[in-house]
Design a protein that fits this description.
Elements: H1 3-13, H2 24-29, H3 34-58, H4 67-89, H5 91-102, H6 108-116, H7 123-153, E1 155-156, E2 159-160, H8 173-195
Antiparallel strand pairs: 1-2
């Protein structure tokens, strides 16, 4: 598989949110605005990529019996780095989503890529796999945040756009799951129509 295919796979074929339905709870919790979704997506992109690279570098030194705790330790290390950086340089956003940054440790998509891909491949392919998966997650959160903030607040990135009365339900959890469901169906239709539905499907997770 080429590097471009690895990137495309994470964005389209196995998009963590729209195709694999992973980490839906935090995806809904932080996407009541584009800004929150973007920053959360950047954090996951960084952790996913660095966890993949680190796992690949250490794969020959990790004993199979302790591989899962080892992967969790690697992920927790990069989540801690991300958490401290956001706490220092993005305090206003961190005050709203600090808890969810810490929960990146338990994101199924990051652990699964360490187990299924990075532990079996060299550094460069693992980097592109992590980059693709992280980018797919980022684009999903930004897309969800775009529609939820526009419809729920009439604004984008905090800037008023629509003068009409917003649909307040869209910034509530129920509206978040509704937006995810609609966008998931649309995304899958696009994937089947233009990419032949070659992506894998998966089950839900956190």
């Amino acid at each position: 598989m080429s590097y471009w295919q690895l990137l495309k796979n994470g964005i389209f074929g196995e998009n963590p949110v729209f195709r694999l339905a992973l980490s839906l709870c935090p995806a809904v919790a932080v996407t009541n605005s584009v800004k929150n979704g973007f920053l959360m997506g950047i954090a996951v992109l960084f952790v996913q990529t660095m966890a993949n690279v680190t796992t690949s570098l250490l794969r020959k030194f990790i004993h199979p019996k302790v591989r899962i705790p080892s992967y969790m330790f690697i992920i927790a290390t990069w989540v801690t780095v991300t958490d401290l950086v956001m706490a220092a340089y993005a305090r206003d956003v961190y005050a709203q989503m600090g808890l969810y940054i810490k929960l990146i440790v338990a994101f199924a998509i990051i652990l699964s890529r360490s187990e299924l891909f990075a532990s079996k491949n060299k550094v460069v392919p693992s980097f592109f796999d992590g980059l693709g998966m992280g980018t797919g997650f980022l684009l999903a959160l930004v897309t969800i945040g775009f529609f939820r903030e526009l419809l729920g607040r009439g604004s984008l990135w905090g800037i008023p756009i629509v003068p009409t009365k917003p649909l307040l339900i869209m910034i509530l959890p129920a509206g978040g799951f509704f937006a995810v469901g609609i966008l998931m169906g649309f995304f899958n239709w696009i994937d089947m129509k233009f990419f032949g539905d070659k992506g894998a499907s998966g089950g839900g997770g956190h």
